[in-house]
Specification:
This protein is α/β, with parallel strands linked by helices. The protein has 10 helices and 8 strands. Bound molecules: 2-phosphoglycolic acid. 2-phosphoglycolic acid (PGA) binds next to strand 8. The site of 2-phosphoglycolic acid has 13 residues, from strand 8.
Amino acid sequence: MRRTRPIIAGNWKMNQTRESITAFFQFLKGQSLPHAERWIAPQAMHLSLCQQLAPSDVKIGAQNCSWENSGALTGELSPAGLADLGLHFTIIGHSERRSLFHESDATIERKLTRALDAGLNVILCVGETLNEREAGETEQILAIQVQSALANVAPQQMERLLIAYEPVWAIGTGKSATPDMAQTAHAFIRSLLSDRAAQSADLPILYGGSVKPDNIQELLRCPDIDGALVGGASLKAADYHALCSAK
Ligand code: PGA
C-alpha cells in the first residue's frame, strides 16, 4: 500500500556535534508528533548517540556502508554491523560519494545488494548533473543508475528499497528542481521499476536538493513524491520539524 505519510529523511553529512545533537532531539521532544515519518542519518560516530537520544519514532541510519560485511577494509562500515546495531537504514550512492569518493555504478550495486542482504532498508540516491540535464540525458542517466544498482535485488527485497531523486545541480545550491521537473523524474523512475516489482507503485521515491520549509509543501503535493531527503535544512531542529509538519 502506498504510504499516506511522507518520509522526511535528514542527511546530516559531516555535521553536528554531541552538543548540537542533544539540543536537536531535546527540541523535537518538546514538539507534538508531526505528520511525517522521521528518518535521520548522522555521521557514523554519532549513530549510537542518536539512537539513545532520539524520540522513539525517529528512525536512525547510516550515510554509507561497505560492500562487504567484514574483512580488511580500513575505515569502512559493515552493513551487518549496522544491522546488528539496530539501525533502520543506510543511504547508498549519494552524489557526494559518487563524485568525491569516485563510487561507480558497479560499486553502488555491490553496496546496495549487501545492505539489503543484511536486512537494512536502503535509500538509493540517483540524479543527473547540470551538463547531463542540459544535454537532454536526464532519463538515460536515471535509467542507468537505477537499473545497474538493482541488478541483483530479489523481488521480495524491493520492500526495503527507497529511491531518492537528487539532481546534482540542486544539492546544497539553494536551487531546487521545480515540482514539475521533480514529478517528471519521479514518474520516470517509477516506470523503470514497473516490470521489476509488483509493488513499484508503492515504492517510496524521495526528492532531494535544496528542500526547505518554504518549498516542501509544493513538492509533496506531486503524486509521485513520497517525501524528501534533506541536507542543509535538516540540521536545525526547528526547520526539520517544520519540514516534518508539512502536508
Ligand atoms: P541539500 O542536500 O538539502 O543541502 O541540498 C540534499 C542532499 O545532499 O541529500
